Amino acid sequence: MTVYSPVISRHCQAGQFVHVRIGDSFNPFLRRPLSIGPCDGDYLRLIFTVKGIGTKILSEKQPGDMIDLIGPLGKPFYLPDEKSCPVLIGGGIGVVPLLTLDDHIKKAVFLLGVQSKTSLTVDESEINQRGISIASDDGSIGFNGNVVQLFEKTLQQWSGTEKQKIIVYACGPMPMMIALKSVCAKFSIKAYLSLEAPMACGVGACQSCVVRKAKAEGYYLVCQDGPVFDAQDVELQP
After folding, report:
1. Alpha carbon of residue 143 to chain centroid
2. What is the DSSP code (8-state) at residue 104?
3. Would 80 be classed as within a structural domain?
4. Which of 94, 103, 146, 147 has a beta carbon 3.0–4.6 Å from 171's, enabling a disulfide?
5. Which element (helix H / strand E) includes 21?
6. Lowest mean pLDDT among 22-31, 118-127, 197-206
7. Where are the alpha helices (DSSP H) in 159-202?
8. CA dist., res. 173 & res. 176, Å (int)
9. 95 plus 178 within the same structural domain
């Protein structure tokens, strides 16, 4: 979905999100958090999959319809310096904030994991244009396996000195993020994770979107302290 929203599109940073009001009624009552995709001038791009009543209603919007957005919200990705080797790792719809990040980074390695070729969240022309390497669970496209396994295979091609320059940027389902955090810790690779969480308010008032702190007692709020976190700072749970 391409949305005309000059204020949000011109002020957002990679990794931030918008909180979307689905319709004019109270069903569904809560807004939906959606990552901001690539922006072009006064326009921003939203990419989502239809899973329930909210996203179904959203998918039925027509050109010219009005849509109520709050944003940009959340903390963005930290951009790497020129000496770093950025690796973008997305899982399914988690690719969206990484597309925006890719527009701000030169020569990034970009990996995307999907269940199958039919579940691709970006079209093949964009995959080719951006040089995205695909991993599919059923082997129907690209590497036969999950995206973390593809990352491990890619690491075998890097020297020890090159591994020290890697910075991972990732977004995807929790099992993927847990496995990826473990791999990065094993090789002492810096990683920034954009976490997904259900949100009632999106601005830190309801205290519902929490992730446990790894280095202290208590919790972070995904909407306000994130959604982007240093992997070492959060304790991920299935």
Report:
1. 21
2. T
3. no
4. 94
5. strand 17-21
6. 22-31
7. 160-163, 174-186
8. 6
9. yes
